[in-house]
Write a structure and sequence with these properties.
This protein is mostly beta strands. The protein contains three helices and 17 strands. It has helices spanning 10-26, 30-41, 183-186; strands at 44-48, 51-66, 83-97, 103-113, 124-135, 138-148, 155-167, 170-179, 203-215, 218-229, 244-256, 260-273, 279-292, 296-305, 320-330, 335-347, 354-366. It has a 17-stranded antiparallel sheet. Strand 11 and strand 12 (260-273) form a beta hairpin. Helix 1 (10-26) packs across helix 2 (30-41). The two termini are 49 Å apart.
Length: 367
């Protein structure tokens, strides 16, 4: 069989092609070609019948020394520390692809250091981890996943399971897991500073979305999600939100072409305060649209979220009602002017207090 190679570096791809061509001229086997490639690049690739296995890895090691001087003489005023330190960042990505182009993968990043000024809580910290399988029309992932459904439903990162399946014009997606500050906080690992591992409640979440492509640039969708904060799972900081459990549903539609975009969504939520057991219901609606010409774009929208509305989205804050219009003009390839006119009202839960704000902003950017 003739091996197939995948690489993230175009120069490496050319080098591998040249290596394979030279090997064929010498009569070398596929296995000998792969062994030679691994010796030269450090990237492992194993050929299978009808597929391949790849390993991509990177290690960054830093050794440095700090001499810290604080004008006040109080070292507590800075997070930097005197001394000699070392830091290592380890990245790995292993994936297997079969003849049907189904890919199974495991990837992660780990940072280890003795510098408590840059990583005060743990000597070694798992920055990210994900494993899964993806192919034509489906995807399943476990670990650090993002449920980016819509403006009013779910738009957050979690540690858990995410799956998507597409059949013709219909796609169905679901997720389940826990929102936590880090993998170490999720496992309640004792920090080196002896402070609580968690400063926010663990939040168990699950949700689903169904989307149907109607054609002509239009699609419609419906979402449902549930959330439950684990009372007693953390020692929250002063002023932190009270724990909640509740659910939310939303309906929406989208229109998208190369020049125009339009998004509409309505949502309803029910939630219970975990401390007072007070119940609340809230509604929310958003409309956002934009149109782009070659060098000029217009945008505008309306957002209205009642203070009692609660969901897993973080795009628009509850309690706000605003109307906005804006424009972007690319004067030259390097120079862009943007303007935004906004009329907004912010309402507080359980009170008649409200804050009104009218704003006009202009920005000139040169890149």
């Amino acid at each position: 069989m003739k091996p197939q190679f995948t690489t993230r570096n175009n120069a490496a791809c050319w080098a591998l092609s040249a290596l394979a061509a030279g090997a064929q001229a010498q009569g070398l086997s596929n296995e000998q070609v792969l062994q030679s490639w691994q010796r030269q690049t450090g990237q492992a690739v194993w050929a299978q019948d009808g597929g391949q296995i790849e390993f991509h890895g990177a290690v960054t090691l830093d050794a440095y020394g700090n001499k810290v001087q604080v004008p006040s003489g109080n070292p507590a005023l800075t997070g930097l520390r005197d001394g000699d330190f070392a830091r290592g960042v380890f990245k790995g990505d292993v994936r297997s692809t079969n003849a049907a182009q189904d890919t199974t993968y495991v990837q992660g990043v780990l940072t280890s250091t003795n510098d408590r000024g840059t990583q005060p809580r743990y000597a070694s910290q798992l920055n990210s981890f994900q494993m899964g399988r993806a192919g034509v029309g489906y995807q399943v992932a476990f670990g650090d996943v993002v449920a980016g459904y819509s403006t009013l439903s779910s738009n957050l990162g979690l540690r858990g399971l995410l799956g998507t399946k597409e059949v013709a014009r219909l796609s169905v997606s679901g997720f389940a897991g826990t929102v936590a500050e880090s993998w170490e906080a999720l496992s309640n690992k004792q920090p080196l500073d002896f402070l609580p591992a968690r400063t926010r409640y663990l939040r168990d979440v699950l949700g689903a979305k169904g989307e149907y492509k109607m054609g002509g640039g239009w699609s419609s969708f419906a979402t449902v999600q549930r959330f439950d904060d684990r009372i007693g799972s953390a020692t929250p900081l002063a002023g932190s939100p009270a724990p909640l459990d509740g659910n939310a549903v939303s309906l929406g539609a989208k229109y998208q072409t190369q020049a125009a975009q339009l998004a509409l969504e309505y949502a309803h939520s029910q939630s219970t305060n975990g401390l007072t057991q007070a119940k609340a219901k809230g509604d929310a609606a958003v409309v956002d649209g934009s149109y782009r010409w070659q060098s000029f774009a217009l945008r505008g929208g309306f957002h209205d979220l009642e203070p009692e509305f609660a969901s897993l989205a973080q795009s628009v804050a509850p309690g706000i009602r605003e109307t906005y219009v804006g424009a972007d003009w690319q004067i030259t390839p390097e120079l862009v002017w943007s303007t935004d006119l906004r009329d907004s009202i912010t309402r507080l839960t359980g009170t008649n207090q409200r804050t009104e704000l009218d704003s006009l902003s202009n920005r000139l950017a040169y890149n």
